[in-house]
Amino acid sequence: MSALPDARRLLDEAAAAMGNAHAPYSSFRVGAALLTETGAIFRGANVENASYGLTLCAERAAVAGAVAAGHRRFRALAVVAGSPHRASPCGACRQVLAEFCDGGFPVHIASASALDAFDTRTLDELLPHRFSLPTTRSRRSHDETHQDLCSRHQRPPA
Ligand code: THU
Fold first, then answer.
1. Is the CATH code 3.40.140.10 the one for domain 3-131?
2. Which residues form ligand 1's pocket by a CB distance below 6 Å?
3. Considering the entire predicted model, what is its pTM?
4. How would you class 99 by CB atoms within 10 Å of its CB: exposed for 0-12, middle for 13-18, buried for 19 or more?
């Protein structure tokens, strides 16, 4: 068992994910690690494109991977950038997090060269007054019910 606190361990995962960044245009490498309610960790890295606007941020890559694997409930996110200063998630990534996470959701942010000097912000701090549809919350719980039903069907017969 690691003696590191949860935030620091998640930051290690994000730093490892940063190694897979595809950032030939900006040379700005970012890694993310998303902890699910069940304890699984999904990594993401920024994936740039010759058509610059198609670039995918590390945070959204992590969310997409987790959701595609059937996870909708998350405990924390860590974001690590290869620059000397901490890179806070961009506005688009904050809104994507708001689709799945409540206001108290913690985001740990660090530079790869100083993982111990991380900063933690809640989603409320990062994106106050965020956009939501009246149905966002109820759709979230509907999806979870749907998922429960699906996993029951996928269970092998006893
Ligand atoms: N980037 C992220 O991966 N996450 C953010 O929250 C902000 C920016 C990436 C996109 C691009 O590949 C590079 O950083 C420079 O903008």
1. yes
2. 23, 26, 28, 30, 46, 48, 55, 57-59, 87, 89-90, 93
3. 0.89
4. middle
